[in-house]
Recover the amino acids of this structure.
């Protein structure tokens, strides 16, 4: 598929999903299906799917210790060693993984050097991808945590605190949350980058555009619901609390936009484990990052190690004995 | 004459890909852009499947009838055996961080050389055959069938990857294209699609103990030759032993250095160093190869070749092993050897007999790197060195990929070089250490027929050398890898003609002041030493 | 001369157009990278081409002898001679300067005097092209000689040493006899 087809396919797919929920819940009124059954089903698929994927990976062993070393090894005591970029124990690995998972260390590595006028070397940086990725992921996380307000009563302190931070601009009624805007902006950047940079365009699949469009639509419906197309917020919370308490109820008249939003979220949840989005879990298991570079001093066992046919010294000597004797090389059997 | 294209047409002909996705663009085999196919007898020696005469540019690759089944079964087996492979097939988000990090992409301009795409070649087949979504939605989820066209694409691009791991440094999930290439090549070997430049050395190594197929008596001859050469330069006669039982240490180094310049000078450096410190060590003709072209074939072949080191150490009854300057050899030793062929409980934790330093960092493998060993000697002041003998050299250092990214041996070689040379200059930061650029010929690509591709792949490295050459007058590129020593001279000849190539221990050999040596008038290459020229007049 | 002044004025547009013409010979995905990436070590090809064209333009504008362009041409052609281009495609970029000039200067060329001067200027580009042929051939020849040298190094050395050894051995065995 060429890039244009991929993008069209993703857009059409999301439009179909929106229409499906709008018609289903809004026009025909299948509130129980869209408000209860599908969310439950999606959540079940998500849980089951994630466990299935993680167990699937975990069942494949790690036969060899293959970290990518990005710094000096631990060797002689007087040689300065990089304990994080080249860890030798669990502590080091945890630090390395922390930088990797929370700060996207490897993406940040994109330092580049520019040779502008004259012989002076200037270190610039190519951190746009890193910035876009960080913005997107943290905005998503904040929004996710904020949404816990809909699933618990009373609302946890952490959630309230985060809401306060997120809305620190203190503008608008209801208060404007920064995270929503950041999320949409970051997705727009990631999408544009993918479609406009020819290298990326070349490697992108429908599976790369679709999640971006889907998450963008989720953000957009959320924002619409909060600021523009008002829904019955009390009703919504009743419904979401009911879902969380496993006592689902349907409140009539909360507005179709709510059903569209929750349906898109359901699709995202169900799609998550079976798409590239599983990198959320996969990053923790990556053998080039989560292993210590210590196989020279700690034995690493390969569970499926099996004996192989080698060419033994005896076979070797058998073939070359005469020549070896003539050359004055010691042999086992004269 | 009517067919002569106009300039603008000419510039555009065929070179831009048509507006279709990469999956629809097939590969074209042309002389110079592929490696020769493996010869049947080499596969037979190793007992590998489907030995036959075949040529990549011919349509018929003489594959077994059920080749697809073999590959897909092989893929399934490896998905279950390697978490790395399974994970790397699943979690790539195609963010493009790796795209422009590959020296082959930079040098060839071929977009399929972006690491992400190299991996997608396998990933697309994985999705099409092993994932629910892929089977359901085929091309919409980026999956595809395993056709002969796809197979040829695998062959073409998996042998355009030097397994250098540079992309892995920049990947947010640590996805390592080398790992994908390693397993991809392993799959190709299931149906006999290897290249001869990998299969022949592996077969040689299996039978004669080294890649070049040097038989024991010839190996001995070569040693004698070096002994004479060293005597000529230094007046000291070194006495290396071969296959000697009861020596304290076994020394193993890549066989490339035994006969190809400039590696030979590095080898002479080892001989001189060991002689000077009076090391009780031996060479082996049976384990006369440090490198491991089995690593470029399959995990199993790697293990079969590597097994000789421990087997020979055991037979000779040595205490531990020292390994010479070699790239992928050290990735194998650091990350695979002990797991595959250990435990080496018949050996002792390496302890330098000269300084008493115990190498705890090698307490399981019982094998240390010569550069670690030498750095320790220098640190303890056990060597008499005259760095001014290297004064005609202005040296820079190329981090070989595997010791850099598969081990982290970064400072030790620099320490040694700075102690044996007075003029040392680093290349730009993003081309050294963990971000070093490959020589373009690693992982079995250093064949003659592949010269142009290698020159393209080596361009980013050469470009950085050119920079320090222009800026600091650098005229010597040092490295700790035998493949580097074999291929960098050609790369330099084309891109930066005034720069030579040397191993670190050649520099050591030149600077080493040996007991009882005569006044040296030449370096190990028999080139005059400035300031120490022979004074013919006095002789008269 | 009015024409040279005009060139100097439009220099940056000419350079941009010419550079674009060169990188258009690469796949689109690559072209963008060659153009955008400023780091000379991450993007040696793009950088070499840009610097080379820049240098050549300088020489043309300063009315210097084309022969002085040799190093710049060599830098660019050394890369293109190696990449997957036919000789014609590797060198077409020189002729493309003509089109770039007539595109960039289109409006000004309506003036007959300038148009005449452009025609006078054109042979200089042809001379560059002739130089380029030599350089290209040189690069290819160099590749062949490197290939020969490499194979000699691989097999030849072995032979040389083997012969040396046999000679020495022969000498040694002769000594006790005599």
């Amino acid at each position: 598929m060429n890039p244009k087809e991929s993008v069209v396919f993703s857009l059409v797919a999301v439009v179909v999903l929106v229409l499906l929920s709008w018609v289903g819940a809004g026009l025909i009124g299948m509130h129980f299906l869209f408000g209860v059954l599908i969310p439950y089903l999606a959540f079940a698929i998500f849980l089951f799917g994630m466990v299935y994927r993680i167990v699937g990976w975990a069942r494949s062993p790690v036969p060899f210790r293959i970290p990518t070393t990005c710094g000096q090894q631990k060797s002689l005591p007087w040689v300065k060693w990089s304990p994080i970029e080249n860890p030798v124990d669990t502590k080091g690995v945890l630090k390395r993984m922390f930088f990797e998972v929370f700060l996207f260390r490897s993406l940040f590595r994109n330092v580049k050097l520019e040779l502008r006028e004259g012989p002076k070397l200037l270190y610039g940086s190519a951190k746009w991808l890193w910035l876009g990725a960080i913005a997107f992921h943290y905005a998503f996380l904040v929004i996710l945590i904020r949404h816990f307000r809909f699933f618990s009563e009373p609302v946890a302190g952490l959630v309230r605190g985060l809401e306060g931070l997120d809305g620190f601009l203190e503008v608008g009624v209801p208060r404007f949350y920064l995270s929503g805007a950041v999320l949409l902006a970051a997705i727009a950047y990631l999408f544009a980058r993918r479609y406009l940079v020819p290298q990326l365009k070349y490697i992108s699949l429908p599976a790369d555009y679709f999640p971006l469009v889907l998450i963008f639509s989720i953000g957009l419906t959320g924002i619409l619901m909060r600021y523009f197309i008002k829904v019955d917020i009390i009703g919504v919370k009743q419904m979401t609390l009911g879902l969380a308490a496993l006592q689902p109820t349907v409140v009539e008249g909360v507005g179709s936009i709510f059903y569209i939003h929750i349906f898109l979220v359901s699709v995202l949840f169900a799609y998550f484990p079976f798409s590239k989005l599983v990198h959320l879990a996969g990053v923790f298991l990556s053998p080039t990052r989560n292993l210590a570079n210590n196989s020279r001093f700690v034995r690493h066992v390969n569970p499926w190690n099996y004996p192989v046919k080698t060419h033994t010294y005896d076979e070797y000597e058998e073939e070359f004995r005469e020549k070896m004797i003539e050359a004055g090389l010691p042999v086992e059997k004269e | 004459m009517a067919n002569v294209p106009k300039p603008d047409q000419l510039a555009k002909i065929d070179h831009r890909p048509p507006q279709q996705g990469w999956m629809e663009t097939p590969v074209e085999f042309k002389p110079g852009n592929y490696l020769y196919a493996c010869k049947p007898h080499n596969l037979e020696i190793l007992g590998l499947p489907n030995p036959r005469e075949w040529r990549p540019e011919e349509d018929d690759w003489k594959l077994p009838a059920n080749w697809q089944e073999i590959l897909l079964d092989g893929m399934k087996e490896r998905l279950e055996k390697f978490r790395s492979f399974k994970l790397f097939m699943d979690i790539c988000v195609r963010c493009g961080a790796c795209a422009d990090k590959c020296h082959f992409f930079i040098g060839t301009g071929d977009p399929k050389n972006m690491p992400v795409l190299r991996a997608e070649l396998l990933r697309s087949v994985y999705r099409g055959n092993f994932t629910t979504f892929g089977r359901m939605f085929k091309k919409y989820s980026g999956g595809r069938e395993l056709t002969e066209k796809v197979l040829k694409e695998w062959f073409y691009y998996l042998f355009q990857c030097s397994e250098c791991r540079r992309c892995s440094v920049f990947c947010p999930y640590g996805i390592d294209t080398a790992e994908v290439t390693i397993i991809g090549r392993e799959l190709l070997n299931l149906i006999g699609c290897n290249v001869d430049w990998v299969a022949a050395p592996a077969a040689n190594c299996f039978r004669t103990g080294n890649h070049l197929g040097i038989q024991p008596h010839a190996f001995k001859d070569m040693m004698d030759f070096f002994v004479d050469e060293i005597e000529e330069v230094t007046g000291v006669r070194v006495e290396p032993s071969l296959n000697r039982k009861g020596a304290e240490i076994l020394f193993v180094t890549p066989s490339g250095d035994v006969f190809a310049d400039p590696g030979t000078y590095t080898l002479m450096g080892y001989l001189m160093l060991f002689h000077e410190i009076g090391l009780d060590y031996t060479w082996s003709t049976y384990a006369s190869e440090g490198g491991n072209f089995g690593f470029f074939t399959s995990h199993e072949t790697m293990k079969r070749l590597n097994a000789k080191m421990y087997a020979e150490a055991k037979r000779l009854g040595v205490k531990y092993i020292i390994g010479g300057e070699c790239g992928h050899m050290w990735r194998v030793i650091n990350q695979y050897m002990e797991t595959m062929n250990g435990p080496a409980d018949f050996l002792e934790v390496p302890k330098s007999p000269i300084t008493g330093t115990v190498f705890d960092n090698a307490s399981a493998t019982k094998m240390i790197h010569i550069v670690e060993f030498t750095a320790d000697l220098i640190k303890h002041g056990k060597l008499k060195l005259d760095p001014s003998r290297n004064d005609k050299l202005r040296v820079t250092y190329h981090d070989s990929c595997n010791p850099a990214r598969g081990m982290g041996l970064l400072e030790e070689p620099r320490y040694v070089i700075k102690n044996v040379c007075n003029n040392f200059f680093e290349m730009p930061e993003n081309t050294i250490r963990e971000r070093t650029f490959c020589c373009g010929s690693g992982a079995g690509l250093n064949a003659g027929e592949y010269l142009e591709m290698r020159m393209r792949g080596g361009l980013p490295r050469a470009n950085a050398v050119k920079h320090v050459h222009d800026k600091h007058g650098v005229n010597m590129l040092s490295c700790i890898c035998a493949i580097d020593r074999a291929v960098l001279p050609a790369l330099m000849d084309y891109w930066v003609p005034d720069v030579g190539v040397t191993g670190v221990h050649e520099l050591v050999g030149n600077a080493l002041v040996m007991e009882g040596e005569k006044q040296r008038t030449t370096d190990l290459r028999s080139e005059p030493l400035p300031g120490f020229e022979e004074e013919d007049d006095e002789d008269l | 001369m009015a024409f040279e002044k005009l060139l100097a004025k439009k220099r940056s547009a000419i350079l941009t157009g010419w550079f674009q013409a060169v990188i258009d010979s690469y796949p689109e995905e690559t072209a963008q990278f060659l153009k955008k990436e400023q780091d000379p070590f991450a993007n040696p090809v793009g950088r070499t081409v840009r610097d080379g064209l820049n240098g050549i333009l300088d020489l043309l504008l300063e009315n210097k002898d084309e022969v002085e362009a040799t190093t710049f041409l060599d830098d660019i052609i050394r890369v293109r001679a190696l990449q997957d281009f036919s000789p014609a495609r590797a060198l077409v970029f020189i002729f493309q300067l003509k089109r770039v000039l007539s595109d960039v200067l289109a409006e000004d060329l309506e003036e007959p005097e300038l148009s005449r001067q452009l025609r006078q200027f054109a042979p200089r580009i042809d001379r560059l092209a002739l130089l380029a042929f030599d350089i290209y051939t040189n690069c290819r020849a160099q590749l062949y000689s490197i290939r020969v040298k490499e194979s000699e190094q691989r097999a030849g050395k072995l032979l040389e040493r083997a012969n040396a050894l046999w000679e020495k051995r022969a000498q040694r065995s002769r000594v006790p006899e005599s």
Remarks:
- The first strand of chain B starts at residue 249 and ends at 252.
- The mean pLDDT of chain B is 92.
- Chain B touches chain C through 47 residues (CB under 8 Å).
